[in-house]
Give the backbone structure.
Amino acid sequence: MADVGIVSISGNREAQAAATTRDPRPFLGVETSLTGRRWEGPGPEEERLCEAMVQRTGLPDAVARILCRAGVAPEAAEDHLAPTLRALLPDPLELRDMERAAARLIDALDRGERIAIFGDYDVDGGASAAMMVAWLREMGHGATLYIPDRIDEGYGPNDAAMAMLARDHGLIVCVDCGTLSHGPIAAAAGADVIVLDHHLGAETLPPALAVVNPNRQDESGTLAHLCAAGVVFLLLVQVTRMLRPRGGALPDLKGFLDLVALATVADVAPLHGVNRAFVRQGLGVMAARARPGLVALADIAGLEVAPAAYHLGYVLGPRINAGGRIGRADLGARLLSATDPQEAARIAAELDRLNGERRAVEAEVRDAALAQAEARGLDAPLVWAAGAGWHPGVVGIVAARLKEATGRPAVVIGCDGGIGKGSGRSVAGVDLGAAIQRLAAEGLLLRGGGHRMAAGLTVAEDAIAPAMERLAELLARQGAGDRPARGLRIAGLITPGAATPELLERIERAGPFGQDAPAPRFALADCRVLEARRVGETHLRLALGDGTGGRLGGIAFNVGGTPLGDALEGHGGRRFHVAGRLELNHYRGRAIPQIRVEDAAPA
C-alpha cells in the first residue's frame, strides 16, 4: 500500500528544497564556536514555510520547524504526527520472492520440519532472529538458533555451519545476512534456504529457495529503507494473511513491533515511511513491558521511564551489541527471545558487564584512531584509521564516533596476521555500502558489503592504503567532501521559559528522531550561566537564564578539559549563545525540561 497522509521527499521536492536552504549568514553571528563550528540557521524561505505552517495548523513554532524540515505540507501535518501501520504498511508482496518464502515457511510448519534460524550478531540480526524464534514458538513449533562467532566465523553464513545445520534441518532461514553468501548456501545441501536481508545484493543471487531483500538489484528501491527486522515482520504479515482463511489462533503481530522498533533505530535505518510507524508503534508496545528480555535490560540500565527512540540507539542497543562485539555472539538473540524473567535478568546482567568492557576497549581504540585520522586531515571525503590489534568488535562503533565528530564517512580497521577487518559508517546522501561493494569487485578488498549507512570489509594489510584512497575517490563523486565538515545546523531560537514539558512532549510527537530525521537543535541567545558544576569527571550540569526570569537546566557531556567545558565552567559572568537538543529529564517522578548542550559561543 502506498504511504497515506505523508508528503514524501520525491512527491514534494519544492518544499524539500526550500526547507533545507540555509541562510548564507552564520546563525546568531557565530562564525566559529567554542567547538570550532559555524552555526547554520534556516533561510528566509524556510522561515516563510514555518510561518505558514503555524498559521494553518496552530502548531507551536518549534514543531512547525520540524515538519517543514521534513517536507511535510500543512494539510498532512496531523497524519505525520500520528503515523500508523494501517496507513503506511506496504504490501509484503511488493518484495520479490516474498510469496515463495511465506509458502515454504507454512509448508515447514504443516510438515513438522525442523527449522534453523541463522542470524547476524548485531541488534538487527538478534532482533530478527528472536522474532522468528518467538513467532514459531507461539505457533507451537520450536527452532534452532545459530549466531556465528564474530572472531572465529566472521559475518554471515559459512560453509561449515550451513552444512552442519542442513544435516538436521529441512529449512534454514538466514536473517540479516546471506545475500552475498553463494558458497555457504550451496553448502547447505539437502535443506532449503530462505534469506531475509537488507544488505546490498550483487548481480547474481545465491542458490537459495527465496531471497527477500529490498536491496536486491532487481528491486524498485521503494522499500530500501527497511532493516532486516522490518523484512522479517513483512514476511510474518504475509504468512498471517495466507493462514487466516484456515481459521484458528494466530500470533498477534503487533506484539513484535518492539523488536522491529529496536532494530530499526539501532541499525540506523532511515526514519521515514513505514519505519516511522514501526518505531512509534513499537515504543508503545515496549512501554507495556511485556517482553522479559527488554524489561530486564531496561532495568539493569537504570531506565526509569518508557523508552524513547534515543534509548533504543544509545542505552539498550549498545548493551545488546556488546555480546556480539566482545562476548558471546548469541546473547542478544537469546535475551530478546527469552520467556523466563530470571533467565532474562541473568543474560541482561552479563550484557551490561560486557558493555562496560566494550566501553574501555572502545575508548582506547577511539583515541588512537582519532589521532591517526587527524594526522591525515579531517576535511577529506573519507576519514579512516587502521591499527594492529584493534578489537574487531569495536571498530564499527569507533567509526561511528569518527563520523559524528567530523561529519564525514569513516572507516576503522583492525589488523591481525596480515589481514585487516574493518567497519564503516556513512553520512546522509552518501552510499557507503555500494562503494565498498565496488571496491571488492575491483579486487582491492578480500570481501566487502553492507548498506547505505554502514558496511564491513576484509582487506590485506598491505592493501589498506590504496583501498582507502580508492574509496575516498568513490565517495567524493557522491559529494562526501562538498559540505563544510564543521557546520552546526540549528532549527531556530527558543527562550528558557518557552521550553515547557508540554512543548517538549509535542516536539517528541513530531518524531521519532534518528537517521534521516535528526532531533531538532535549538539555540538559546544571550544566556547567563547561573550554575555550572561538574558531574563525574567530564560532564557539566548547568542552569541557564535569559535575564527575564526564564531558567532552563542543561547537561553537557564529556566536555571536561575542552574549550567548551572550560568556558562554561569558568564563565566569570560572561554571556553565551548556547545550542543543543531539548529533552525531558525524568527525576523522582518529575519531568523536568533541559537542554543537552552541544555547543556555545560568547554572546
